[in-house]
Amino acid sequence: MGRYVARRLLLTIPVLLGASFLIFAMVYALPGDPIRALGGDRPLSPAVIAELRERFHLNDPLYVQYWEYVKGLFQGDLGTDFRGRPVLDTIERTLPVTVKLALVAIVFEAVIGLVAGVLAGIRRNSFFDNLVLVSTTLVVSIPILVLAFFAQLLFGLRLQWFPIAGTNEGLYSYLLPGLVLASGSLAYVARLTRTSLAENLRADYVRTARAKGLPNRTVIVRHTLRNSLIPVVTYIGADIGTLLGGAIVTETVFNLPGIGREVFNSIRSQEGAVVVGIVTLMVFFFIFFNLVVDVLYAVLDPRIRYD
Amino acid sequence: MTDQQQLDLRKDAVEAGTTTGLASPSVDVTQERQNSLWSDAWGDLRRNPFFWIGAVLGLVFLLMALVPQVFARGADPRACDLGNSRGLPSADHWFGFDTQGCDYLANVVYGARNSLIIGVIAVLVILLLGVVVGAVAGYYGGLTDGILARLADIFYALPLILGALVLLRVGPSTGIPVINSRGPGAVAIALALFGWMTAMRLVRSQVIAVKSSDYVAAARAMGASSRRILVRHILPNAVAPVLVYATITIGVIIAAEATLTYLGVGLQRPAISWGLQIEAGQDSIRTAPHLVLFPSLILTMTVMAFVMMGDALRDALDPRQRA
């Protein structure tokens, strides 16, 4: 197991560097001259422009710029934006918002998804089962963008249950965006649980348990559910990384000051260092949680052995 | 040969006394075996209501993209009268009017064409990239596979919307032909460039799975070239999963296009697009919610059509589901 984890960790390095270089190379080609824009109405003197271009390595070829960036990265320095604010500070300010949002989403996903999936799985082809099938198809098909607007219209403006923007009401203001962000994964968790449970209910060991005369409840909770949840738990784990990276639309529509909205604003205002920094962080989360899940898989399912 | 024809054939044979109707080799076994996957799948599909709902919605959407004037009830999306600004839906104008006073039904209906063009182009490019890269990686293995699989990992770690967002923001200032056009082509290419990995992995795993089978060895023994083995003997195995994937992906791409356009980097005015309509409508979400409601509704139904068809196809083509 130790060797497997070490090998996987080594393999993440080229992926992390590759992804950050890809974004770096694209951002490098961002239109306009950010230095000139800094001056605003009063044009900067040529000497100042030259000095600033030198300081931000804007005159060097792409690979030199990237090398400078990576050197800083390993020392925990993500660079500064064009106003001189460290990118790390921006991330420290915005990351907690996104983490809270992702946590709320995970809770929704796990609780609602699991309950719906279990109830549908134990009574296949019942009314509730069909309801889950139809509603998950519907939810999967609604783009996050549309769902966000409908949630704002219905729960925010009509019913006035939730605030529709900002984080003024603490954790309460994360509920609606969290639910919207979770919707797609929630539907997937419900379906995964349903299929997995229905499949395991046909297994021999379940028949044995019933033959022993165990009550239905024990058969489902103690014997079937435990095995059926393995793929679900691993899916939810891997989804954390996806949610952290996928919060761009949700945070923009609900006006939450997290890394998703920050990276979107930085793309628009050509803040290359912020874009590369946040995207690298998102990629790191994605890779990290996928690794955790792969290891977790072996812990949960004794039939799986790495090495 | 359809199921019905096969049943008929069997019935004829039984009645003619040439067979007992039990399993017997005179019942054209070869034909049945050849058709089994697809004809069984069609039999499944025919009985799946989700498939029919998806197919009908998809057909309506296709017609909407081809002949929008029929669905727009004769209204011109660009003929506007400011006096009608944000007019509510009525019997004459089913979807009301937008802020410029243009007939909203016509605008929403004319938006279908761009969505379909982007969805189809992006998926075609995804299939091209996915099949070529996946087949090469799976067939040659070794270092080639290692490098290509790592490349796919890199793209996979970047969220689709984020990658396309950066590329489209940068696009217009670069010299790359299609990418700098700000048109449907640019959006389609950007989405395909960050969305080809799943197709590649599907094809790669299928190729690896059948590469060492006897019939491939037989083909090689008969002197078939690598290319012929790949194209004629290995790739046909990947058709079923790739078809399912492609159907669902058209829906995913259409949703992604609307999102990118909403965020301001996709299609630009004066193009007609659901993303632009939602973006323009959100300012008046309190006073004229129909401006966000109608394009959202049609967008959702379109995505749903492809997701439903894809889901039904998957159920039908998955042999494990069959008893």
UniProtKB/TrEMBL annotation, chain A:
Residues 95-297 form the ABC transmembrane type-1 domain. It is a multi-pass membrane protein. SUPFAM superfamilies: MetI-like. InterPro entries: BPD_transp_1_N (IPR045621), MetI-like (IPR000515), MetI-like_sf (IPR035906). It is found in: Cell membrane. Keywords: Cell membrane, Membrane, Transmembrane, Transmembrane helix, Transport. The chain crosses the membrane at residues 101-122, 131-151, 171-190, 232-254, 274-300. Belongs to the binding-protein-dependent transport system permease family. This is Oligopeptide transport system permease protein.
TrEMBL record, chain B:
It is a multi-pass membrane protein. The chain crosses the membrane at residues 50-71, 116-142, 154-171, 183-203, 234-256, 292-313. The keyword Phosphoprotein does not apply. It is found in: Cell membrane. Its main location: membrane. GO terms for biological process: transmembrane transport. One of its GO terms (cellular component) is plasma membrane. Residues 112-310 form the ABC transmembrane type-1 domain. Pfam families: BPD_transp_1, OppC_N. The keyword Amino-acid biosynthesis does not apply. It comes from the Bacteria. Keywords: Cell membrane, Membrane, Transmembrane, Transmembrane helix, Transport. PANTHER family: ABC TRANSPORTER PERMEASE PROTEIN, OLIGOPEPTIDE TRANSPORT SYSTEM PERMEASE PROTEIN APPC. Belongs to the binding-protein-dependent transport system permease family. This is Oligopeptide transport system permease protein. The lineage of its organism: Bacteria, Bacillati, Actinomycetota, Actinomycetes, Geodermatophilales.
